[in-house]
Exodeoxyribonuclease III (Streptomyces yaizuensis), 290 residues
Amino acid sequence: MGRIVTSVNVNGLRAAAKKGFVEWLAATDADVVCLQEVRATPEQLPAGVRDPEGWFTAHAPAGATGRAGVSLYTRREPDAVRTGFGVPEFDGSGRYIEADLPGLTVASLYLPAGEVGTERQDEKYRFMDAFLPYLVGLRARAAAEGREVLVCGDWNIAHREADLKNWRGNRKNSGFLPEEREWLSKVIGAEGTEGAEGAEGAEGAADAPGADGTAEYVDVVRALHPDQEGPYSWWSYRGRAFDNDTGWRIDYQIATPGLAARARKAYVERAATHAERWSDHAPVTVDYDH
């Protein structure tokens, strides 16, 4: 039996619930759903969204009203749930939650968006600086326990030129800055960066993170689609970005190599029409074999 995992930035869960999220959740075959930019606190969510039938839910709301917020929906009850990653500035910011399932630690991440020349970009860099060593340590701890790790979410960085339609026009914008892309290369490592060998090639990767401080995870979608433009997961609501597929691939499933090697299919659940969208992001789904 396999395990299907979906990640999506809902762009406000209360709004998404009114526009199709509830119906999507009822129909999905996913075993785990990772949500970002929930915004609402659990108390503000309708009961059927906060604790839908058939799901165990864990929510990490942001300390600031109407900002961030991440959640995990799992078909089976987690053995443990942890919020934040041990950095006081971010532990109450609603940007990271992880849960232990049998043989797997799965996390929902909402990395700060940033804006060049502002405090928002400084915040993004502080988050990145603190999060990379956490990812290295998380992988090492999981390996010692015989567990895989999967960090899903909105990373707010397009890693390669193939990850956004208008890359030439965004080289000086947050989300495609050289230092952001270099940082993501430290998270992903060689296989995830090039994707040349696909997910199967990840199986022979080292069992421990790199000694140079790199985390050596695998970008699962890119590993399965090494030569494709996109598949994009976010399109601006402005203009005709969605209709023209002028998008960004910033929503990732980043896995330890052993899990990445078991990924059989990865796809973006793109709405059929602009009117049918319930977020400016689309769900990113991966089917993993046990």
